[in-house]
Design a protein that fits this description.
heterotrimer, A mainly alpha (about 100), B mainly alpha (about 625), C mainly alpha (about 180), A: about 100 residues, mainly alpha, elongated, C: about 180 residues, Four Helix Bundle (Hemerythrin (Met), subunit A)
Chain lengths: ~100, ~625, ~180
């Protein structure tokens, strides 16, 4: 069977699901963050395969931007986690309940 | 027609005065009172000028006095003025007598710290009253009718820090509401059946027979009469007027003697063409009954103002009765002369009260003739006019009423009216003898003093009109309004008019004489009232106003309380508990349920967020 | 040799490589989020690096050479190093012992099930694209596209990076003055 768009998209979906599962299940903020990266990568993969199988480069340009933004996001997010840890001595989501009134 | 805009000015000057006083000059008593007195005087002068230029029946051109105020489908209501003999005479009374009372008030209320407020309210009242008088349609009249009600409420409750004044104001207002409710229904019936509210249109339509009230004429007439019943304090809505004496005395004179209570009679005369025989009969008997009832009550009152108040009730009963006897001319005639002499009596009483340092019990007075000579003479003139002694004005107007009763062959009402005339003389001279003659019955009476000129001046002017009011052509004007053909009588003819019908005149004068001698024999030198001993229970009933207040307390107010309790229960348990409670409880429950969603846990939020995205995508894709 | 060339020209090698890289990516991703042997974030981070590298392989198969390079340089290089730095910095020993809760598992599976079913529905209705991709020499074309049509977003992204840099410095300062 020739590998086509559907195969790549399936991989992308599975990767995305794994990332989502991680975000919801894991309690460690850092692992959650990594799972987020997984989800981003899944989106990247989908975009690149779309670009490939539709003969358009715009998808790749978008991925380029996503990677850049993701880099910035990781930098800021990790800085936030560090700041939070300093304040609460914990990187555990269950300890972060200030959203509950 | 010359001076076309004068009627508008006459109407709105007092309103301008209210606005200026309330907005700018509340601080300055002097300026406020001058503005108010100036406004009403200017209105009076403009009225006189207008009449001098146009006569009593001006040809009204086009739309000068008419302004289409609201037009919905078939309903066309003008904000317009009607100037004819009826309204012009009434305007003269309102602005003239009212103006004198304004001036008098300045003396009487001089030391009151809220003088500005008082004059603002007086002006508001004058404006509203002129509105009733000049209105050219029912709706506009009703609006001003209510305005008069509210200004009366404000003025009765002027000394609102006294609980009795507040209660009296409320009582007057609510009792009037009852009547006005009927009035409003009457107006609605007129509009529903005749498709117009304009007096001129209605009158010409009814006269030409193009529109007719048909079978509902009696009901419509009685509903409209309800309004007059409230304002003119006819039985059974008469209870508010005596209590209204809690207001300042000039207010009693202006509103509850000269003008406002006359509004009901004026309205009846204005819309007389709508009433059929049945309605008029009811009106006549209610008027007669009221006059008798009030005269009996007046006999055993001890408060100087209340006696005059009951006499007002009684005289209003006369007017209503004679309207019911299809005699608008005598009614308006008596209304006008009554405005003179009753205002005179009230203002003189006010002068007495002031001289006595706010003592109102007549058994604390006595021998004021020496101490207050001017008041003594004006009061005497007012009393003579009220009793109907020739040639005072009351004689002519009362005689025309009696004559009308004879003309209509209603001997029962004639008998009542004659009897009431005797009673009137009796209680008037009881008051007179006790207050002005005899011995001083208290220290205050011995130290009484005459009032200043600002008060006695208006008294003297009113006294002059009380004397000559009967033969200066007042009847001619009203006759020209109501009768198809009439002859203008010269002054001499007017003087001798009653002698054409000797029976009512003689019987009337006889009644006056009986009343006078009865009063003289009993009260000439009385220290206390000898009547209760002689009449026993009847006297007590009279003094207690035949227990009408207690009766209403037991029936109407109890019923009202019961209904209120029922609605309170409905409100509390069905509306509040059921409807609102359900909604509130539902909201509360939903809120509590939704609160569980807010766990503060990041991952729960992520979970819900993803579910939301999934649902959204499901619909989008 | 002939047979191998034949296979290459038919794309059989690429297909095999796709399966290899796809399996590698998914297995590593599973190990990122749930490692039965170690709950340490460091392990997760290392598997994430592997995932990213195998993703780069997939990118190469998709002829996105430039992106594959960037993926390895930026993600596997810069980002993951940052992650590791932070993990070291926080010294998260205690956190390792906590167990995955049943509630988390159930909600996670529900959410994943919901979103995956939607995606699969979309996938079933989607076309397969072109079977014979023609794009060649993408890096040159990509660069051209980036600096012509997408100049403005490119510049904006550079500003974003600057902002992120400033923000990170500000957040990392011990005390705001």
């Amino acid at each position: 069977m020739q590998v086509g768009l559907h195969h790549y998209l399936t991989v992308s979906i599975l990767l995305f699901s794994l990332g989502l599962l991680g975000v919801i299940m894991r309690r460690n903020l850092l692992v959650i963050y990594m799972s987020l990266e997984l989800m981003l990568n899944a989106a990247n993969l989908a975009l690149v395969s779309f670009s490939r199988f539709n003969d358009k480069l715009d998808g790749q340009v978008l991925v380029f931007f996503i990677i850049t933004v993701a880099a910035a996001e990781v930098a800021v997010g990790l800085a936030l986690i560090v700041a939070l840890y300093r304040k609460r001595q914990s990187a555990h989501v269950e300890d972060l309940t200030s959203m509950k009134l | 027609m010359k001076h076309e805009l004068f009627p508008w000015l006459i109407l709105f000057l007092p309103l301008i005065s209210v606005a200026v006083i309330t907005l700018f000059t509340l601080r300055s008593k002097m300026v406020s009172s001058l503005i108010s007195i100036g406004a009403v005087s200017a209105s009076f002068i403009l009225t006189v000028l207008f009449i001098a230029a146009n006569g009593f029946h001006p040809e009204v051109p086009g739309d000068v006095l008419n302004w289409n105020w609201l037009s919905i489908d078939q309903l066309n209501v003008d904000f317009g003025l009607k100037v004819d003999a009826l309204s012009l005479m009434m305007t003269l009374v309102v602005t003239g007598v009212g103006g004198l009372i304004h001036i008098y008030s300045y003396g009487y209320m001089h030391d009151d710290r809220s003088l500005s407020r008082f004059f603002a309210k007086l002006s508001l009242f004058t404006f509203s009253m002129l509105g009733i008088v000049l209105a050219n349609n029912f709706l506009m009249m009703f609006i001003f009718w209510e305005l008069v009600g509210i200004s009366s409420y404000l003025l009765i409750g002027f000394w609102f820090e006294k609980p009795s004044a507040g209660d009296a104001a409320k009582k007057a207002f609510i009792t009037n509401r009852l009547g006005d409710f009927g009035f409003l229904f009457g107006i609605l019936m007129v509009w529903g059946l005749l498709h117009s509210l304009n007096f001129s249109e209605l009158q010409s339509g009814v006269a030409a027979g193009t529109v007719t009230l048909g079978a509902s004429a009696t009901i419509a007439g009685l509903l409209i009469f309800c309004g007059a019943m409230g304002k003119s304090a006819q039985f059974p809505l008469h209870v508010w007027l005596p209590d209204a004496m809690e207001g300042p005395t000039p207010v009693s004179a202006l509103i509850h003697a000269a003008t406002m209570v006359a509004a009901g009679v004026y309205m009846l005369c204005r819309s007389l063409f709508l009433f059929d025989h049945g309605a008029l009969q009811v009106i006549a008997y209610i008027g007669g009954f009221t006059s008798l009832l009030a005269a009996l009550m007046a006999m055993q009152q001890n408060d100087i103002k209340r006696i005059i108040a009951y006499s007002t009730l009684s005289q209003l009963g006369y007017m209503v009765m004679v309207v019911g006897l299809n005699g608008p001319t005598p009614a308006m005639f008596h209304l006008t002369t009554h405005a003179f002499f009753k205002a005179l009596l009230f203002l003189s009483a006010g002068s007495v009260i002031m001289g006595m340092h706010h003592e109102q019990d007549i058994w604390q007075m006595g021998n004021l003739r020496k101490k207050m000579p001017i008041t003594f003479w004006t009061f005497l003139i007012g009393s003579l006019a009220l009793c109907g002694v020739p040639p005072f004005s009351g004689f002519y107007s009362k005689d025309s009423i009696l004559a009308q009763a004879i003309d209509q062959h209603n001997y029962l009402l004639f008998g009542i009216a004659t009897f009431v005339a005797a009673l009137t003389t009796f209680y008037t001279f009881r008051l007179f003898f006790v207050v002005f003659l005899g011995k001083e019955k208290s220290k205050a009476a011995a130290h009484a003093h005459e009032s200043p000129f600002v008060m006695t001046g208006p008294l003297m002017v009113l006294a002059v009109f009380s004397v000559i009011g009967g033969f200066i052509g007042i009847t001619n004007n009203f006759e020209s309004q109501f009768a198809h053909e009439h002859e203008s009588l010269t002054m001499m003819q007017q003087l001798l008019e009653p002698f054409h019908k000797p029976i009512p005149m003689c019987l009337g004068l006889g009644a006056v004489a009986i009343g006078f001698f009865a009063a003289m024999s009993i009260y000439k030198d009385a220290e206390t009232d000898p009547l209760p001993a002689r009449l026993g229970g009847l006297s007590k009933a009279m003094a207690n106003r035949f227990y009408f207040d207690e009766l209403y307390e037991a029936t109407v107010i109890r019923l009202h309380d019961f209904i209120a309790a029922v609605f309170d229960w409905i409100d509390r348990w069905i509306l509040e508990g059921g409807c609102i409670g359900l909604i509130r409880g539902g909201t509360d429950f939903t809120g509590r349920a939704l609160r569980l969603m807010q766990t503060g846990n990041l991952q729960t939020y992520a979970f819900l967020f993803v579910l939301g995205v999934a649902v959204l995508l499901y619909f989008v894709l | 040799m002939e047979a191998i060339n034949n296979l290459i020209s038919q794309g059989a090698v690429q297909d095999v490589l796709f399966w290899v890289f796809a399996a590698l990516t998914l297995i590593c991703a599973i190990l990122v989020i749930a490692n039965p042997f170690s709950r340490s974030p460091v392990t997760s981070a290392m598997f994430l690096v592997l995932t990213i590298i195998s993703m780069a392989g997939l990118f190469v198969l998709l002829h996105a050479f430039f992106l594959a390079a960037v993926q390895i340089l930026v993600y596997a290089g810069a980002v993951m190093v940052l992650f590791l730095f932070v993990i070291m910095l926080l010294d998260l020993k205690e956190e390792q012992r906590r167990k995955i809760k049943l509630f988390g598992l159930v909600t996670g599976l529900i959410a994943v099930g919901g979103i995956v079913s939607v995606f699969l529905k979309a996938l079933a209705s989607a076309g397969n694209g072109t079977d014979a991709p023609k794009l060649e020499g993408e890096t040159y074309a990509l660069g051209k596209l980036l600096f012509t049509q997408y100049t403005l977003p490119f510049e904006i992204v550079s500003v974003l990076l600057l902002v992120a840099m400033v923000g990170v410095i500000l957040l990392s300062k011990r005390k705001l003055e």
